[in-house]
Amino acid sequence: MADVMVAAMPFHGHAGPLAAVAGAFVAGGHRVRAYTGAAYESAFSAVGADVILWRSARDFDEHDPSGSYPELAGRRGPRQMLANVEHLFVRSGAGQCADLLEAWRGRPWDAVVADATSLGAAFAAERTGTAWVSVSTTPLALPSRRLPPPGLGIAPARNAAERARDAALRRAARSATRGIQRAYRDERTRAGLGPGRARFDEATASPDLVCAVGVPELEYPREDPTGRIVFVGELARRSPTPGPSPALPEWWSEVVRSAVPVVHVTQGTQNLDPSDLIAPTFAALGRQPVLVVATTGRPDAAPLPFPVPPNARVAGFVPHAALLPHVDVMITNGGWGGVLAALAHGVPLVVAGGDLDKPEAAARVAWAGAGIDLRTGRPRPRAILDAWRRVSRDAAIRGRSRELAARFAEHDGPAEVVAHTLALIDRVRARDRG
Length: 434
What we know:
Layout: E1 3-7, H1 12-27, E2 31-36, H2 41-45, E3 50-53, H3 77-90, H4 93-106, E4 111-115, H5 119-128, E5 131-136, H6 160-176, H7 178-190, H8 200-203, E6 210-212, E7 229-231, H9 252-256, E8 262-266, H10 278-285, E9 291-295, E10 312-315, H11 320-323, E11 327-332, H12 336-344, E12 349-351, H13 358-368, E13 371-373, H14 381-393, H15 395-408, H16 413-433
Parallel strand pairs: 1-2, 1-4, 2-3, 4-5, 5-6, 6-7, 8-9, 8-11, 9-10, 11-12, 12-13
Helix pairs in contact: 1-16, 3-7, 4-5, 10-14
């Protein structure tokens, strides 16, 4: 039996996958604690983990992070991404580490299993000298000597001109992220660590084991050493968990019995302005022979500020496991968890990735041949209509989506993270004995 600390940043797309991992450890008879924000306490306690909440680290509401971090107010696009990384992810690192070290002093763990943006978990593993597994819940963001900088949504170079472009972008990215690197050094000092040899974008990935969600077909070819990276498919619970099942909307029978194709449009769980993607999708498909199922990402199910066409149905959330088997095409803002869920069900995608990691998700879907990248988070109705028509009719895209579903079916992500972690614990114990 292992004693494991699972750490997740308090975002839906991070906490959900890590809760599935925590549940798999519990099911295997291991002792599990989970460190996360208050909003996700119930997600981890429901799978049997003992929950430790952010205290020294400043907790926040993912739907309004500027309420706790005023530095983020009014930012979108690249400015939002840089500010989020610096203030939410980096400058909370020492506080997270303090919380985790307090837990360690009460009961040491055998391994920290943390989402790759949980900087405090990396610090705590370094302070305690324990095994550390980083779980990449977003498109793999490890820097590369040959690829474009992660986050820009640019596919690998195909010729000399594009290789020169990528080299210039890598230099520019180092300049643009100097503030983040300064913050990283400051947090290492606050956490009682030396300056370190790695940059922040390298230091958030475990040197021993990176469990990346997805499948290799969605990852760009790398010339860098990748032996520590394993792909684990989708991190979703495959068996029922304690507590009631998520409620389905009252119009659910219309989805199940629909005589026309079902198109799912989702605004994701961050930057929830429905005018970005839901409104233009309604304008594009409101007169088409489809049933549009829109999810706003808002748990309060607030009414939309614009008319809903007769062929559309709206909810805050609908469980992917229930919905996606009925979906013909998914139109998404590019949240990686939703993208992977769609591909795991063989559903082709139209992706409007505007900011954060979403342009990267959109570019990888297009690069893998499983959908269309609209190259904006605020597409025009005509662009959505044209993309939906192409995805609906293109046999190559639909076939590629089914191929990727077959690759996902080969994985049981949470169980694989458990197995890889236990193997790493054994290697660390053997190394310490030697």
